Write the structure tokens for this entry.
Amino acid sequence: MARKIKPLSDTDCRNAKSRDKDYSLFDGGGLFLLIKASGTKSWRFKFTKPNGKSGLTAFGDYPALSLAEARAKREEARGLLAVGVDPIENKRQAKLDAEYDRTSSFEAISREWHAKNAAKWSAAHARNILARLEAYVFPAIGRQPVTNLKTRDLLAPLRKIEENGTLEVAGRVRQHISGVMRYAVQTGLIDSNPAGDLSGALEAPILVHRASLPLERVPELMQRLDAYRGRILTALALRFTLLTFVRSSELRFMCWNEIDADRATWTIPASRELIEGVAHSHRGAKMKEQHIVPLSRQALTVLEAIRPLTGRFDLVFAGDHDAAKPMSENTVNAALRRMGYDTKTEVCGHGFRAMACTALTEAGLWDRDVVERQMSHKERNSVRVAYTHKVEFLEQRRLMMQWWADWLDANHGQFIPPHEFAGKVGNVVSLRAGKAA
């Protein structure tokens, strides 16, 4: 008859002292507390494996693992044995599963995906992607294995962003999530991408067009520009922006060494040397490809007026207080406001681009590719881009930029529609020849 074991009390465990040799205090059911000569007290569980062999496993040390907790672990192990599962093998598999979950978690796969792709992104873009994932996605699903994630799980963090009203951010984060899950498919972790069904699930952001004047109001703009009495460099920046309709960063970071007066061109590089303390100063052309801007006679005249002001510096539009830094990104719009315009509803500096595009299109003298190339827009049609991405249309664009400057001059007094001016200019034959070239 088996000897009956008196269950341990917490006092028994607490008062047990070390001896010269290890010894055990039994609680029953295979659980005992091993008192080591070193003074460590460790819970052990002795059992018979499903294959009939003896088994022994450790649960943890006392008092970190209390008597009650050790008994709970014993009952859990006995429950596994009752259904033919070896608790030691189960523990080993649990560790393996935990390690797999850790290395295949959404956060782990996201960081792996980010590292694989970071080289083809700009440093700022790479930082923004990781920052969005860390802020919006990892707290919600970062610890979950990608194998467990369903479309509804991926949608949850996006809904929270959407609820805050930042719809554009939600759209960007959806793209990041899709990229991560696509990478999980490519690396064999999952068979299909559940992020594919996120398309259309989010509210689309309202597209806000930059304010631009109707062409009928160009004479008014020219007259107000003539009457502007602010800082001279600001007035010249306004004129140059209107004549070249470039983007704000392209203008602000413009350097004198980018201008070839003999060829009447301004070459905007794909990127520029970083100016310490100036955000985004590494930016060149928007599409990260070199962009050539043919300069009209009027644009060259503006540059010659600027040269005495900033010609000794690197930057054409140098700052008022520090010539090593560019003028403020708000300079052009602030000047337009002083001229009496609401830059949110009437016209802003970026709106000059829409005005120019409209006028050049309505003139009917140039193919779409010529106008788009001057606007430095990215071709979205993959077939077209294969044929047009290296074509500069430079001679046609020279004629076009000169036409635009002449049309602005002609509209100082009264409005002349672009198509009417196109029929009046003396070089219309050469312009149409340029279209056919």
